[in-house]
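Hi support team,

I'm opening this ticket because the web form for multi-chain structure prediction keeps timing out on my end. I have pasted the exact lines I submitted so you can reproduce it. The total is 762 residues across two entries, so I didn't expect it to be a heavy job. Is there a limit I'm missing, or should I split the entries? Thanks in advance, R.K.
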Amino acid sequence: MPGDSLNVHLNTKATAQNTYDAIVVGSGISGGWAAKELCEKGLKTLVLERGRNVEHIKDYAGTEKNIWELTHHNNRTEEDKKNSPIQSKCYAYDEVSKKFFVNDIENPYNEVKKFWWIRGYHVGGRSLMWGRQSYRWSDLDFEANGKDGHGVDWPIRYKDLAPWYSYVEKFAGINGNKDGLPQLPDGEFLPAMEMNCLEKHVAASLKQNYSDRVMIMGRSANHTKQVGDRGPCQYRNKCHQGCPFGGYFSSNSATLPAAKATGNLTLRPHSIVLDVLYDKDKKRATGVRILDAETMKTEEYYAKIVFLNASTLGTAHILLHSVSDVFPNGFGNSSNQVGHNLMDHHYGVGAHGDYDGFEDSYYYGRRPNGIYIPRFRNINEKTKRSDYVRGFGYQGGASRGRGNGEDGIGVELKASLTEPGKWGMGIAAWGEHLPYYENKVTLNKEKKDKWGLPILDIDCEFKENEKIMRKDMMDSAAEMLEKAGIKNVKTFDSDPPPGFCIHEMGTARMGKDAKTSVLNGNNQMHDVKNVFITDGACMASSACQNPSLTYMALTARAADFAVNELKKGNL
Amino acid sequence: MNRRDALSRVALLLGGTVIGGEFFLSGCTSSDKKIGQSVDFTADDIAYLDEIAETIIPATDTPGAKEAKVGSFMTVMVKDCYDEKQQKIFLEGMNKLNEASKQKYGGNGFMKITPEQRKELLNALDKEQKEHGKNKKKDDEPHYFSLMKQLTLLGYFTSEPGATKALRYVPVPGRFEACMPYKKGDKAWAL
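Hello R.K., no limit was hit. The queue was backed up. Here is the completed structure from your submission:
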């Protein structure tokens, strides 16, 4: 195996016991991929997870229950809201899935500006509760910073990532159609899900009324066909509770079992990483120091390479907390960019309405996916806006309500509510958030959490470009629906603060120049060559697509690079 | 459909869950208040709430709200999912409703009046709550009967009899059919 030929320096028996070829910090969507790739390439890999273990299927208790078997029929209680005032706002937080969300009181952070940080501290992280929407980026996205001057230019282009998108899609199991759109490249897809009658109608209308936009079937990490021993999807639409059928991709269902199968994986839950250890003579990280969350004891682990996949804000915390003579401002932070350029997507704005017709049509099954309207603004000269840069995409869907209003009581009301009502269609936009240096996280100088670690100060906002774009996001939604014959179209804007889209990214960005970025084009730290960061922290811009698939591809690519460098003796 | 409905619908289609759509219109909204754990309901209270619920959703060729144990469900929700302000409105509402019955039907409380009289009374209250809802400003208190009605509809259609007999429910659909024929009279899907 490649790992066997690596030169291991062992000082003492204790050190030997705690020495691995690679350490991966975090077991979420990118950490799981790092673990799989490194293990499969023969490296003895230690995965450190700050929370408890969650075993695939075994630990999804409750998802098999019918709604009436849940005490509150799946509603949030006042106690939920008290313990987790932020988490309980999340759409995926319910009576069964709440065990996968942190207690906000026990895991505090400081909102310098309003920021709703949704977290899952357990093996698998948020890959268990994620929304599963999976879209490639294109050069429209990778070239954006360089072209309009916001942030720093990406050190990679689509061609660098394309084969890795293919690689991860094949394993992850993404469904979708090949739609042939330059701004949303096709991938290696499982069969797509299908649009219902009204969605097909609106898609046809869009095609008829606009030359610059289309409505496609959403692409998601639900398995429309069996992938290995996973799936297929059973259309229960309870994904965020953990799927006993393995019907969607998660670290727990897919990457961690693959890593384990190699015999090279050691998974250590309850391991909060305090800092990255550094050898200033060799200019390399030597490992990490952890706090065992159960015993409260610290311990050191050593490895030749370290992958940080602790989540955008978790990774930033570790870097900022790893201070030394060489790195007084944080690990690998000679650029002073660590913690800065924090982005999310701005969303929660769109339009909805009813439709008269298709009374003789319905559907069967609960499709855990919707429709997607890929970006159509600022994608070429013709679609260029004078009032804002970048763009947005829409997710949404149509469904049939129940009944015809809720007026009255008695037999008539009951009869009405037991039959399907009108069709309705809603779309909501996900918009790009520009990288701003002043949107940042820092360590709070006074407040500490129960493990004695400084809490994060999160200081992030949406600015003028987002606000102007947002108006277009709302107006265009209404316009498209109205043109499709949707009636009673109403716009909405729930105006959620940053964080709530759960696409936070950018706190240790990639870039060409070590002076203005933290990572190079291989997700390798400019300052410390054997440390790689492939979670959301690495992102130099946010685009408007859901980012997880890109994290997966970047991780697999970086792991390949890292192992090659290791073999060459460069690390 | 209002904004909240729309958000729920969008959340559903994106893989989320509609959590008590009707209920959340004016029910369990975010609150910093402490939980009123002292709220307690007696067997008589549950029987009373069962009859209110049954009048809203009566037994027909499918079970009614009483068989679906909606009264008991309401008490659990009021205790655990209502903030103190909502609890107060609901509890006072239980008295107000009974007083309204006494006033209208010669001193007879709700449990003593006939099913027809119950229907007449709750129809009047339903109009009253609808009117109240129309004129209500954002932060005004909801009408107690709108809370009772919302909890009844939520509880019934997510109960076993409501979901499986009044509606159609398939726990594990196993497949998705995007467009299937529908004919008038076919039941709606639960959830």
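A quick check on our side: Residues 23 and 150 of chain B are 5 Å apart (CA to CA). Let us know if the file doesn't open in your viewer.
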